[in-house]
Amino acid sequence: MIGEATSSGGGGKDDSPAAVSGKKNKKPNYSRFTQQELPACKPILTPGWVITSFIVVGVVFIPIGLASLYASEHVVEIVERYDKDCIPPDYRNNSLHYIQTSETDKNCTMTINVPKHMKSPVFIYYELDNFYQNHRRLAHGMHKEFPFKSHLCCLWILKVEFSSVVDMIELTQFGARNLLFGKSPQKISLDKSENPEFVFIRMTTKVEKSARYVKSRSDKQLRSKASEGTTETCKPEAVTSNGQPIVPCGLVAWSLFNDTYKFSVKKEVLGVSKKNIAWKSDQEHKFGSDIYPKNFQNGSLIGGGKLNPSIPLSEQVDLIVWMRTAALPNFRKLYGKIEKDLQANTTITVTIENNYNTYSFGGKKKLVLSTTSWIGGKNSFLGRAYIAIGGLCLFLAVCFVFVYLLKPRPLGDPSYLSWNRNPSGQMN
Amino acid sequence: MTRGRIRARLRRSHLHPFSCLRPNANNEEPHPLSGPGFSRIVHCNRPDRHLKKPLKYCSNYISTTKYNIATFLPKALYEQFYRVANFYFLVAAGLSLTAVAPFSPLSMIAPLAFVVGISMLKEALEDWRRFAQDMKVNSRKASVHKGDGVFGYKPWQKIQVGDVVKVEKDQFFPADLLLLSASYDDGVSYVETMNLDGETNLKVKRSLEVTLPLEDDEAFKNFTGTIKCEDPNPSLYTFIGNFEYEQQVYPLDPSQILLRDSKLRNTAYVYGVVIFTGFDSKVMQNSTKSPSKRSKIEKKMDKIIYILLSLLLLISSISSIGFAVKIKLQMPDWWYMQPLNPDSLYDPDQPSKSGLAHLVTALILYGYLIPISLYVSIEIVKVFQARFINQDIQMYDEESGNTAQARTSNLNEELGQVDTILSDKTGTLTCNQMDFLKCSIAGTAYGIRSSEVEVAAEKQMAMDLEEQDTQITNGSRCRKSAHNSWEDSRGGPEIELESVITSKCENDQKPAIKGFSFEDNKLMDGNWLKEPNTEVILLFFRILAICQTAVPELNEETGMFTYEAESPDEAAFLVAAREFGFEFCKRTQSSVFIREKYTHPGQLIEREFKILNLLEFTSKRKRMSVIVQDEDGQILLLCKGADSIIFDRLSKNGRVYETTTAKHLNDYGEVGLRTLALAYKKLDESEYSAWNDEFVKAKTSISADREAMLELVADMMEKDLILIGATAVEDKLQKGVPQCIDKLAQAGLKIWVLTGDKMETAINIGFSCSLLRQGMKQICITVMNSDAVAQESKQAVKENISMQITNASQMVKLEKDPHAAFALIIDGKTLSYALEDDMKHQFLALAVVCASVICCRVSPKQKALVTRLVKEGTGKTTLAIGDGANDVGMIQEADIGVGISGVEGMQAVMASDFSISQFRFLERLLVVHGHWCYKRIAQMICYFFYKNIAFGLTLFYFEAFTAFSGQSVYNDWYMLLFNVILTSLPVISLGVFEQDVSSEVCLQFPALYQQGPKNLFFDWYRILGWMGNGLYTSLVIFILNIMIFYNQAFRAEGQTADMAAMGATMFSCIITAVNCQIALTMSHFTWIQHLFVWGSVTTWYLFLLLFGMLPPYYSEDAHKILVEALGPAPIYWCTILLVTVACNLPYLAHISFQRCFNPMDHHIIQEIKYYKKDVEDQHMWRRERSKARQETKIGFTARVDAKIRQLKGKLQRRSSTLILPNCMPSPCQ
């Protein structure tokens, strides 16, 4: 087109030579691609194929299903819920207080009966329920002044300190008595004139970056000491009040699970191995061996467990396991393993240090002991699903055969063509 | 109405060479020009005066582009974001910059920019092409007066109002010009207005007498003048203005105006002064912006997108309500999220506010329901499809060197859904070339060559015979007898096949002479002298040579004469006469000179015939006569006309050959030839002069009814004629037209012909392309008495027409015979009433029950109106095809416009969506490409929605498990890749390469085409089915994964699945399942499909592997996930297998059951092909091919069927008396 336009500058007369020269070029070249004649296989679904494939699926699936069911059946799993039982009867009505105060003794003892022989290794899990580790929480990036509202539900001492997060706090008087308890949120935007005993706290804060619970962490920081200060994504648990970075920062680490279990059989302590409970790649690549916990749980609010500051992050297996966020609000995480066979009918005594607060949101806590097989833990669903699908396929195959026998259609029978089926569509 | 009047005037000017009817121009008064609308002033030869306002008019530069550099960006962006889906993504991308977005801004903006960028690039390219075309026109050179009598070339765009332009033969006029003088002394010039109105005959333009002396370049040295005229307007046939020259004022009328884009013919040069330039010119004023068309599928797709948007809104509101509830009731308890530190988005005190903010987040998060890459994928696919259309070697025309062109690619799939074709006649169905084929002289038929209709009919018969043979081999004596007697009768007189056999070699020897395909040694080379009625034959040839109004033109190279005639028929007659030895060589004002070759053997004699009177042809008179005096002084009236008219005017002794001629005429008509009867009458001197006095009296009368009087007088003369014979001219159809129409009819398409031609011509063409046939009931709707129209009130006329339509509908309704076919023929004047609002639906209702519809004498506007009526009245897809500028309206109005390229005039092609160089390529364009494109696009869109629903909903389900917090289970990278790479290439390969059946089969089984117009592949049932399938898939994927990876260990090493593992597994399941799904929907696998489908699955695992290799800084939670966590876990692979099978099982079961027990036509044909049954059982294959057609009442097949039925009817009657009755009726049905 463009070529022609330039060549036909001479006026209307010379259109024809341009057309002539265009003629030769215009003829499309033959190629199987442009003529849409590429060799192709054109599989068609013949009844034979259909029946065969249904049967094949059935025949393959049912054994797989049986095998995984079998494997699942051989997994021995013990699940013990302890959150209720580990509350001393005195505190049953005030479990929150029990777990929040540091004055109570958190230890509790349970006995577990091993129903079947458990081959080593026996994996120990803690299971949390109604815990949204997968929650995405945003802190809104804005610069605004807002009264500090508190809906405290936990027994952490509110220490108001000047920090870089909080640019300014107006603090007139402090009277903390009524502040700290109660399940429902309380507003304490109180006026001095109303009650001079109370404090009017006004915080002006700059919260810059969005953070999610899931993402309230800094993978970069976890990896090496060099990027210790990389805490932007960790808000609101990023730095201490005097601007020191928290290691490991973020809400995820901050809420580290901190119940502990000790096992013994007839007074004899069963060793809990923490070896290989974390992914190797996590230990090698995601958690640095030169970075140590720092300023952790030293802040105004104390979350979950504490970490030993003398062990590098790459060795903090419980943290590493915890930091792998669970997909569902009901999850298990590996606590350790007992590298010893447990005989049937053995009674195991478990000493639980019940530290972790799930009482405020009514989450259950469970201790799980389980062996594994090639499909992992006890999971009969996979096997059942396989058997169901395989069975369905066989059923479909049978149906197909029956219907086909009742109403056979020779393949390529022209009498099924629409113009033969519907005689009005043709002329003679 | 205006148009008719103007035409009459034009026609009169045709008679200019004979001077007898030339109106006396000198009496005319200048037009009283005043008031608004007549403000234009042109200073001739003083273009410098037009440089400043108010006389500065627009330049001659034209532009048909949609954009220019400045407007491109805003306009094109507007067009892009006018699409609802794109707008949604724009808003989403905008919001992604804020904190509420669940994804990073880049992952939202990049795909959008990509998609919009590609679409805009396409727009820009298309506009660039238009620009190049404009530049080509704008830079054409024209010879312009530069002052001092010197002319020089200037590009068109530089021409200004007031310029004097010299245009030479066969050049286009660069602007609207006032004709000043021409190479002919009398200022006459011939103009072809093909580009304006599609008429190929030449129009005569005549300059004012005062400007005649301006006949050479020098004369313009001091020429000045002023034109005052109307303002620019689109009316092609009117012009009002005055020309002030040398202190005199002369009125101007349309016959002095040369319009831009028409062409000077037959005249060496003309001088003209530019009146209207560029956009002011009439042709540009007439051009309408081509509407952007969208296919039905695309419109429906918009609806689906709306459905998905509402679904999106629904689940987003569910999600945000859920979020608000959770925040209100539970969030305060979740100490691990530090609810102490709340903000407006997570504020338990303001759950509604947080919920609203979350709504935005959710709307973005679930954006995966709406396939962002859908538009761009469709555009890519359509570009490929268009390339395939352009590259199709079987739509390449060797003669013109043109390929088919998909000029806009967004209507490809619409080609597969066409229901009605509205076709122009001249230049589309016919080549507008008449071939003298046969004649009947003195009751003897001459001419052995058969018409195209005969040839094609013979082929069809041969095929049917073969089939009959097949049936014989199958047995049944009864059938055999039936066949035998049918065969017997085949040789009989009922079917015109006697000459068919001789035509076998027709294709080899193309007619060497344009317009002459006659072949019969009895008349050629002077052999007619040996025939019995030599005298009559001589007279016959003389009538051919003399009774005409053409101008001879000597071709200096060949020494032969060519003829510029008003109608191509006339040219064909003159060529025939020349070939028979009566060469028309010269015309003067009063005489015609004929060179006769054989009348005196060995001598070439030039005879002069004095033309005494010429009684011109009008469509009402349907005849023309000349009164001539030969060299012996004998006065003859020579007359040619429509047979019915002539037969009525024969004298008693002139009817010698009437019966035989009538039979021949009938035969000719049946094979689609245009016939005219020839007659003559000898006149006495006294008889003539008496009549001539009357005639002159009538002619010079100045009363209003002059024309009526003239007609009456002419009528007195044209009676008591002596019939001598008839001619049969073939209106040369374009190659393959009848076959193509036949095939299209078999594919169930309705074909309407809309032509500017007169009714007889249109009917003849109807016959020759088998739209009409003998035995079809023709319903002619006309205004009864065209004279009376003026007198009668409009209301009465309308009632009359309404009555005709009602009667006809009644007749059609009462018809019992299922094979009866009706043809509706309507002329333009009647149509103008029938198209009025109160009557058009009645008219349409009648038209759709008729097998063929022919509208004649329709104006371009009416063509468009009819098209709109069909389009809107029936709601079906229409396709308009035409070649001339007069078809532009229709082409733009129809759902699909097809232009015929190759002949001159590019207007139709420029306005069209597809251009082909021959009508016959329409078959392949529709039946092959249309069918494929329709199915491809339909399947592709369905699949697109399926996969996005399947994917998008899993996000929603998962979100419910994260307390509606907007967390996605997948890594951002997975999601980005999902639409862009992992699932787009397979679906593009489906859209580009899928073929349900091969192109041969498409052509062999035209009935398959009906799957498109019936919309079997994109109806709501199917769309909802696919959406349901998507829903099912999403549920299966999510539930199975959740159940399998619930909370227990997923590996023997005891680890439990975290979100990354679960996300990767779910995503693997999705990728495998949707790709297996597309493999199931495909029926045609070339290596490309294999590569893309299986390649996509492989790419995913490769990606996961390689991405996992990257340092955790980049790969985040996907680090080593395949190698370390998932790969070694058997449960991962088990899950993928299980989910993939479970997802595809219902679809597989559905299609297998459908296919086995309720197969569609293409399934069976695929099976036949697969088992090579077509090779093994060729009879069956052929039989099915001949049956695979829609019930049609037009085309050869119908014609042959009708014939066979007729014969069978006879046979049945005959045999029922002879053969056992129980044997008879069934087998032949």
Automatic annotation (TrEMBL), chain A:
Q: Record keywords: tRNA-binding included?
A: no
What PANTHER family does the record point to? ALA-INTERACTING SUBUNIT (PTHR10926:SF72), CELL CYCLE CONTROL PROTEIN 50 (PTHR10926)
Question: Which UniProt keywords are given for this protein, alphabetically ordered?
Answer: Membrane, Transmembrane, Transmembrane helix
Q: Where are the transmembrane segments?
A: 49-71, 385-406
- What is one term from the GO cellular component aspect held by the record? endoplasmic reticulum
- Family listed: Belongs to the CDC50/LEM3 family.
The record's Pfam families line, in alphabetical order, gives: CDC50 (PF03381)
Could you confirm whether the keyword Transferase appears in this record? no
**Annotated Polar residues bias:** 227-238
Question: Which organism encodes this protein?
Answer: Salix brachista
According to the record, the residues making up region (Disordered) are 1-28, 219-238
Q: Where in the cell is it found?
A: Membrane
Q: What is this protein called?
A: ALA-interacting subunit
Instruction: Cite the InterPro entries for this sequence.
Output: CDC50/LEM3_fam
From TrEMBL, chain B:
For the region Disordered, what residue ranges are annotated? 469-493
Question: Keywords on this record?
Answer: ATP-binding, Isopeptide bond, Magnesium, Membrane, Metal-binding, Nucleotide-binding, Translocase, Transmembrane, Transmembrane helix, Ubl conjugation
> Is-annotated flag, keyword Cell division?
no
Which cofactor names does the annotation list? Mg(2+)
Among the Pfam families in the record, one is PhoLip_ATPase_N
| Residue positions binding ATP | 424-426, 570, 617, 640, 674, 755-757, 857, 863, 886-887
Q: What is its main location?
A: membrane
Quick one: which residues bind Mg(2+)?
A: 424, 426, 883, 887
Residues forming the P-type ATPase C-terminal domain are 909-1159
State the SUPFAM superfamilies in the record: Calcium ATPase, transduction domain A, Calcium ATPase, transmembrane domain M, HAD-like, Metal cation-transporting ATPase, ATP-binding domain N
The alphabetized list of GO BP terms reads: phospholipid translocation
Q: How does the UniProt record describe the way this protein sits in the membrane?
A: Multi-pass membrane protein
Can you give the residue ranges of the P-type ATPase N-terminal domain? 42-109
The record's GO CC annotations read:
plasma membrane
Residues of the active site are: 424
Q: Does the keyword Ligase apply?
A: no
Any one Gene Ontology molecular-function term assigned to this protein's record: magnesium ion binding
What this protein catalyses is: ATP + H2O + phospholipidSide 1 = ADP + phosphate + phospholipidSide 2
| EC number(s) on file | 7.6.2.1
Checking PROSITE patterns in the record gives:
ATPASE_E1_E2
Top-rank taxon, per record: Eukaryota
Protein's cellular compartments:
Membrane
Question: Protein name, please?
Answer: Phospholipid-transporting ATPase
Annotated organism of origin? Salix brachista
Lineage of source species: Eukaryota, Viridiplantae, Streptophyta, Embryophyta, Tracheophyta
